[in-house]
Amino acid sequence: MMRYRLFGQTGLRVSEVVLGTMALREVDEYRRVLGVFAEAGGNFVDTATAYGNSEELLGEVLTRRDRFVIGTKYTLSRDPSDLNAAGNHRKNLVLSLENSLRRLRTDYIDVYWVHIWDRLTPIEETMRALDDVVRSGKVLHIGISDAPAWVVARANTFAQLRDRTPFAAVQVPYNLLWRDIERELLPMAEAFGMSVTAWAPLGQGVLTGAAGQRTDPAQFSARQRAAATAVAKVADELGVPAAHVALAWTRHRSAAVLPIVGVSSAEQLRVNLDALDLVLPTEAVRTLEESAPFELGFPSDFIANYDDAARAYGDAAPRVDAPGLPRGAAWGLQR
């Protein structure tokens, strides 16, 4: 049964998985997919200006607008011949938002995402422009996708100091093969109380074998093959599809993570939604993570592996416990 999470620190209630619409191209199938998602209790739908005609299709099939949390994105080019038709500056933001509102046939966006960090536009300028559209009522909440942790932290600190709307969430890739967010982005999001919507939770099909339908498996790296084999092994032991195992892994590490389940058919969505009740046993998690080794890198590994807390922090340091951490774990960053 679908459960719900709070979206960042906004109080907004969103389903524990997000419906990804990038692969949906036909209106009748789009309608069936949205119906299956709603029937299961899903309410959070993800789209973007760059996803072909996804916004138009969603606007056509969407009923009971108030029951859904719609997220869409801007940044990517609307017109390759126009320099100002891309980026995170105010001009592109305003024009992109008006286009999205028209395509979605709505007068407001629940979550408006910066699609990718634009290094040419100061983040302070972007935050001012986003705050303006929130104050106008055309946007309720904001998020940022595919940006460094320091940029997001700087943006939210600026918003806090200037009483502007902060980012409530980040959108990033996360799966057994791509764990980079565990270095900086996930700890930052947890510290700020942000949600993390995770794209490519199935490793673009690699972790389920589905990528073999599009790509020669022989082209996979040894690490990819090992991870896919481990997922298949755990799935066989638990008697569930490989996709369930891959999705469950993205959800086990942090309550902040909301996987984006991208589908091309209603039947595919039904199968994936069955993963909601799967909780991976500790041994299964160990098997999966040993198949695709990952290192946090400096400074996390350095701090976590520092084995002489007393020398660094004083004789009584090892006896200090911290809220939210297991006993004796206050000096390490390992999870």
SSE pattern = EEEHEHEHEHEHEHEHHEHHHH
CATH topology assignment of the largest domain: TIM Barrel
Q: How many helix segments?
A: 12
Q: Oligomer, anyone? A: single chain
Low-confidence stretches: none
- CATH first level of the largest domain: Alpha Beta
Domains, number: 2
> Biggest sheet, open or closed, and with what strands and sense?
8 strands, parallel, barrel
CATH architecture of the largest domain: Alpha-Beta Barrel
Q: At the fourth CATH level, what is the homologous superfamily of the largest domain?
A: NADP-dependent oxidoreductase domain
Q: Which structural class do the helices and strands define?
A: alpha/beta
| Cα radius of gyration in angstroms | 21 Å
Domain NADP-dependent oxidoreductase: 17-291
Keywords: Oxidoreductase
InterPro entries: AKR (IPR020471), AKR_Detox_Biosynth (IPR050523), NAD(P)_OxRdtase_dom_sf (IPR036812), NADP_OxRdtase_dom (IPR023210)
Protein name: Aldo/keto reductase
Short description:
The protein is an alpha/beta fold. The protein contains twelve helices and ten strands. The strands form two sheets. An eight-stranded parallel beta barrel has the order 3-4-5-6-7-8-9-10, surrounded by five helices. A two-stranded antiparallel sheet has the order 1-2.
